[in-house]
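LOG
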Amino acid sequence: MRKPITAATLLLTLVAVAPATADAAFKRCRPVTNVFEGSRYEGSDLYRIRAQGVSCRTARRVVRRGTYRAVAATPNPSGYVRVRYRRWFILDDLRGSVDRFSARAGGRKRVRWLFGEI
């Protein structure tokens, strides 16, 4: 009699945990193309945008505005740029041939993207 109760409890626990892990996954968003038209960065796109806890519309706005701010900022000696856009904290890793960005805000809101030429 004890085993069916334990199996049912386990099943209910797995069902309750499954949606939480599905929400935690990053979703893909469309790239932002030629955002710096008329500048030295013309032709460089913001691509491989991944969002967690926000819509793609919000993620693309954070990507565009965060990149503007990070490009204007001065990197520290280790090759990182840290800036803020509204409530978002943005980190730009300049090491390598492509800039790797990550942004985070309150809760589980996260956005990641790449900047440069493919």
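LOG (cont.) second protein
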Amino acid sequence: MQARFDPQWLREGEFDLSNDPRAATRTVKVRQALERLEGGRLRLVKHSSRGRTPGYYLREGKRGEVEAQYYMSIDRDLRTLALGLSVEKGEEHSGCDRDRKMDRHSWDWPKLVAMGAPRLADSLSVISSDLGRPLAVVLDTHRKANAQEERETVPFVFTGTELLVQSAPVGIEVLFARLREIDRRKDWWADVWIVADFTELEVGRLSPDDVAQRLYAFRPLRDALRGRSSGS
């Protein structure tokens, strides 16, 4: 029987609270369990982002920005574990760095923008129902301008049946209008996180296999963004 996670890891903001060797930490076991569900290899890549302690992406390729990635991170303030997907938009202006330049033929961001409100709403409904909880959809955009960084963050909550902004219900079209507006910003980078949050008490009941199963609930949406049928 797999060991459960210690909720202390949320309080201390670390994923690898374990006496196991590095190659067998519980975080690595999450990756291994997700690989068994996926039927393929995934790269486990540590990351850090504003307002969160270091977390992890799980992806297929070498460049994470290109693909819709599995994502897990800890919210420092709320002491919750976020599990879900990350989708990124690169820059497209003439002066951007090569590593930050988005290719609309190979990146998954354009597929998200082209997905359409009804199809995304259906996907979010299925995931929310499978996990038995609301989903957060966070749009974070930023750019460097005049040696200073500009940043805009808009958090949505999908309850399973409706989309909320600051507790007020809005149509899914509002989210898509925002995505399309961001898509036109050639000199802005964007991150979209579609995640479910789990509390300390819940984390204390989860094994690495349990975490992988909850990440796998996002696979149909990830496959749609990767341009393939689910299960292929």
